[in-house]
Amino acid sequence: MLNRLLQAFNRGGGNAPGAATIRDTANLEILLPWALAKAGEEIRFPVAYLEFLRTCLERKRFPITTVKKNRSGHDQDSARRFASLLGALSTLPAIEFAVAARLARVADTFHSNPGNFQSNSWFGDIRAHFEMTSSFGHKGRILTTIIRFMRCSRCLELGTAYGMSALFILEALAAQGLDTQLTTVEGSETLYEIASRLLDSRFQGRVSCEYGWTSHVLPRLAGNLIPVDFMFHDAGHSRQDYVGDFQAALPLLAPGAVVLIDDINWNDPRFASTNPQCREGWLAVASHARVMWAVEIGQEMGLVLLN
Questions:
Q1: Distance CA 133, CA 79 (A)
Q2: Relative to the CA of 97, which of 38, 230, 238, 249 has its CA 20 to 30 Å away?
Q3: How large is the average pLDDT for residues 211-235?
Q4: Pairing between strand 228-233 and 253-262?
Q5: PANTHER family from the xrefs (predicted)?
Q6: Could you tell me the CA-to-CA distances from 276 to 118, 241, 249, 263, 282 in Å, in that order?
Q7: Is the dihedral of CA 286, 151, 219, 160 positive or negative?
């Protein structure tokens, strides 16, 4: 594999179109076996472990589509940072290897978990549910890049699930400095117990895990939480959830805050008996008066800058 890549690179020339991708792939093919050997026999699912690392490190591009942009009314510093962020997201910076390896080890423990998990419409084990619902390398890199370029220090996550996206956020916040904080909200008691134990064990004092539905928790947080500069929405997936949670969170969102909404085109019949109208919900959020700039990252995520 590596020899074929190097031969293709040499035929194309070091500066030919696509050469950087070939070179990047060749580098990964050298790195990943070394990373697996370094991790040792304690890794139970080596293929999944390597795939996690690959998605944290590989060259990746996302198309950025502008949905809304007002040329006046927003803070110029925030707008400049947001413009720089969009440029970075289109090529998606890699995650530091040590961070990627730490989080890949956490994911490996979940791949090994045979515990039962069930909801109103789905039944299986934790391993299967974790693989369907958790944030891995590409999404984690988006979260990390947002925090890095927007210089976020106070973050709010709606929908903690198993805590993987929160770990990406917390690792990025740790790189920003000491005075940072993440608050997460999870409505499943099972997931809340799993995630809160994990997050507290690794980032005690920098993370606060709240249990309950967002419609109940957000009004309470509005009176107690310092305004946040980044919110990640990965909770209920429907038009009603997107719009309702955004409206409830507005008092918590500082001027110049950014909001990332996951799964803006989601419609999974395993979990939704009718069309949840996620896209309609996302577009309603993007049209809000406080939204000065709204873009779509690929087909799955919506990102807005608030005035």
A1: 32
A2: 230
A3: 94
A4: parallel
A5: CATECHOL O-METHYLTRANSFERASE 1-RELATED (PTHR43836)
A6: 20, 9, 21, 11, 11
A7: positive
Write b or e for each residue in 294-307: b if 16 or more Cβ atoms lie within 10 A of its Cβ, otherwise e.
Answer: bbbbbebbbbbbbb
Give the predicted TM-score (pTM) of the model: 0.91
Helix axis angle for 239-249 and 214-222, nearest 10°, is 10
Instruction: Specify whether the CB–CB gap between 189 and 207 falls below 8 A.
Output: no
Find out whether 112 and 61 touch, Cβ atoms under 8 Å: no
Length of the chain: 307
Average pLDDT across the chain, whole number: 90
Say which residue the tokens 């979940």 belong to: 110
The two structure tokens encoding residue 38:
């370094």
* Domains of the chain, earliest start first: 1-58+96-112 (no CATH), 60-93+141-306 (3.40.50.150)
273-291 tens-digit pLDDT = 788 999 999 999 999 999 9
Question: Could you tell me which of 45, 58, 17 has the C-alpha nearest to residue 108?
Answer: 45
Amino acid making up residue 104 = A
Q: pLDDT tens for residues 185-195?
A: 999 999 999 99
CA 83 – CA 75 distance, rounded (Å): 12
